[in-house]
Amino acid sequence: MKQAHTLREYQYYDKDTLCSIIDADFTTKQVRVENKVDSILDTAFGVNTEPTWDDFLEFLASRCIPKTRCGLGYYLDAVGVPEYDPVQNRNSGALSRPSILNTVGMQPVNSKK
Hints:
Blueprint: E1 4-14, E2 17-25, E3 30-35, H1 53-62, H2 72-79, E4 101-110
Antiparallel strand pairs: 1-2, 1-4, 2-3
């Protein structure tokens, strides 16, 4: 039996330089990162070349407005987001540094067994 996977690709930039490509499988909760630059200071996960799902979730949350920020509801309303969710709101403008993380695609694919 084939199981559909929900895959998303994220590109991590420093200004105009593509530093890392992050592939996230939301079905199996697995992450793969491909660093495009040599400087670990410019990569998405630094020296961690095998990030876990928790590392990935922390990465997304660290690039959003803090959940504890005073007036968070105002900001969410301003960008049309009903609730705080760093994973789902990645393109909403709720990111504090939106130019650094850019979702380029989400596509379900079939796994091969």
